[in-house]
Specification:
single chain; 35% helix
Amino acid sequence: MWKPLLLAVALMGLVPGAARSPIDREPLVLGARLLYGPRPGFDSVDADLISRAARSLDMAAYVLSDHAVIDALGLAARRGVKVRIYLDPEQNPPREAHRGGRLAELLATAGVEARVKSAAGDLMHMKSYQVDGRWVRSGSANFSFSGESRQDNDLVVLDSVEAASVYAAKFEEMWRRRDNARYAP
């Protein structure tokens, strides 16, 4: 009697260690909002979500050039939010610093820490962040003017502690890579 039940449970993936597909290993979450742009208001989603940060914000940004997003991150840091930004090497903050760019100003703000993925590796292509261990933003839209206001893109915003925890673990893995460059203004 127990053997058929155990077999059924194992086949359903409910037994620890049972073979499951990668999608089945991720948490199934509720509280998702899916947005498509361009459309009115699409370009304000990130600034609005960043403005909700009270404690921490971890961002992985392939491109970070949109002034509204950069300004929102700076305001968050000035409110006492711990802001960490992981960048692709193409962003090259040290080179931009010599041009007096907005990103360089943000990265020089107290409360903002940045690391750059090694140029020897593949792209850091994520466009996502987590806020206060509660919200996760991900999607195809870069943090750029065109990505947020002109291109066909999608954004997913999850209000999920579980999803934020999964994101935080991945972010920590990227953040702690030994070959990262630390940005120091």
